[in-house]
Amino acid sequence: xxxxxxxxxxIDQKGRKVLLRGVNLGGSxxxxxxxxxxxxxxxxxxxxxxxxxxxxxxxxxxxxxxxxRIKHWGFNCIRFLIxxxxxxxxxxxxxxxxxxxxxxxxxxxxxxxxxYIFIDPHQDVWSRMTGGDGAPGWxxxxxxxxxxKFDASxxxxxxxxxxxxxxxxxxPQMYWDNNNVRFANATMWTLFxxxxxxxxxxTINGQNIQEYMQSHFFNSVKQIALRVxxxxxxxxxxxxxxxxxxxxxxxxxxxxxxxxxxxxxxxxTPIDAMALAAGIPREVGYQExxxxxxxxxxxxxxxxxxxxxxxxxxEDIWRKEGVWDINDENQPxxxxxxxxxxxxGKKVDFYKLYLSPFINSYAKMIHEIMPHAIIxxxxxxxxxxxxxxxxxxxxxxxxxxxxxxxxYDTASTVTKRAWLRFNIDIMRNKLIIGKKNVxxxxxxxxxxxxxxxxxxxxxxxxxxxxxxxxYDLNKKKAYKKFKKIGNRAFKKNVEALNMFYNALDANLLxxxxxxxxxxxxxxxxxxxxxxxxxxxxxxxxTNPNDINSGGRAIEGFCRPHxxxxxxxxxxxxxxxxxxxxxxxxxxxxxLKTPTIIYIPSMQYPKxxxxxxxxxxxxxxxxxxxxxxxIFSNDAGIIKIMIKRIx
Length: 646
Hints:
Layout: E1 3-6, E2 9-12, E3 17-18, E4 21-25, H1 63-72, E5 77-82, H2 84-88, H3 97-111, E6 116-121, H4 138-142, H5 159-162, H6 183-198, E7 203-204, E8 207-208, H7 209-228, E9 234-238, E10 265-267, H8 270-277, E11 282-290, E12 293-302, H9 317-320, E13 324-326, E14 332-334, E15 342-343, E16 346-347, H10 350-369, E17 374-377, H11 381-385, E18 401-403, H12 410-415, E19 422-425, E20 430-433, H13 435-453, E21 463-464, H14 473-485, H15 491-506, E22 510-516, H16 554-557, E23 561-565, E24 567-575, E25 580-587, E26 595-598, E27 608-612, E28 619-624, E29 627-632, E30 636-644
Parallel strand pairs: 4-5, 4-22, 5-6, 6-9, 9-17, 17-18, 21-22
Antiparallel strand pairs: 1-2, 2-3, 3-23, 7-8, 10-11, 11-12, 13-14, 15-16, 19-20, 23-26, 24-25, 25-30, 26-29, 27-30, 28-29
Helix pairs in contact: 3-7, 6-7, 7-10, 13-15
């Protein structure tokens, strides 16, 4: 295995501690290539069995171009996206061998560039049919749901149906997450993680729906593991991107109002969702960003045309389980308000009882194929971003594990405006004023997230699986300026990314930025739900012969950083404006191999000078292309400073 895990660090074959700094590849891997699965393209998804993901993240003919660029920018790690749908879209147990062939070839090419790669089975709000990506469409048919009726019945909020370029309010940016409280997404996640407890009567061919769904998911990922197990670059697998808990731990009447306080869009409780799915209109509140908070701005009656999303002849799962019913006035009534909160008289814990067993079972499946694979895992993303410590129960026998939560500056992400001089601290629920204080907030938030992993299995690494910023800030202002001033148009993005990476450096954290999308463009961004976070775009590529051309805000993420340390890293800091990089570590004299630091020429166009701040006479420095090698035969603390030559 090219990497192992030891405490909070990744360890290479020479015993050095490795810092992973990488990128997610890629944003459009969520959608099919054929037919065009971009979410602005109208569809009813009836062709879901005939799609193809061959060419995600890019065609084989483009592979060297993109991998070379990613490597040039100093990334040594790739979080490689796949989806369950890409593998098993044809039907139950039928795997797309041509896609698997493509996947194997693209990862063999990536291996040539000596990346550390882990596979991310990606999903957002369950599937494309429910407003996101991930699971195949035929699963809905298995549980009796008609996905062509999801949008009309308000069971899902789907861009392919709702988007109207002449009316931005028809599909507001960054509102796709509203699907978390809607019927289709919440039902499928509840069944996936908790079908045995919450829907014991829901079976397929005599198998409970939870076992059925998880076994198919496992088998699909297994097909990939079998293909890549001998590729050295593959260091492991992630369990599942941003898993949701559906209605598990939720009250049917929605009395747990704290779970809806930060929701954008319609506030749909479980009973609202169940009634709407059955064709019963409901009046619900609608929340929007107002000032520095989220407030209810109106109420609306949904599903006025009384459309049901249940297939003809299918039984309503939740009525069958006795959760709710319909009275003589054709109105919904709650029978078991605590159905998803209490099991056998005990309070439900999603992390302990459902997510952790899933993670351990998944790890066991992967290790049967790749015994030394590293297992990356996370919980629902907002819990980590709010600093909430949850009860993961990990099996030491199924390790090594890496905690891979996500972190975004939520104010900037949701509004598509950079909140750098004042912001909202979602961990402390308070207003932060001043750029220095915002930087301290970022540092503190990541420190809190990192501390979570310190309590797991006596301490495991933390890798921030996603962080980043939109490039179409302020109504695509940068794109309008780009034609005149070039990359200086992304000044605000550079400033924000610099602050994000400062926070990573302050905590010596591993991270993979979201994202690199090879077919990003200024009109449709990453091709998915109006998101536009790609660090590369063809629309900014003015000179195909320049490897940096097409990069956006490169100065913000292409910066000096540790790659491998022959000892223990103690401090890392980069001051962008001055071009000063400081690195401090405690050398291990038993390791006869250099510490390696990445030094991009972009930050040092006229070169740089090196100072050894603790005056060690036993340190030797070697420069080689974009890398600095530090040799030391003695133990002790070594501190170096790199300065830009003006």
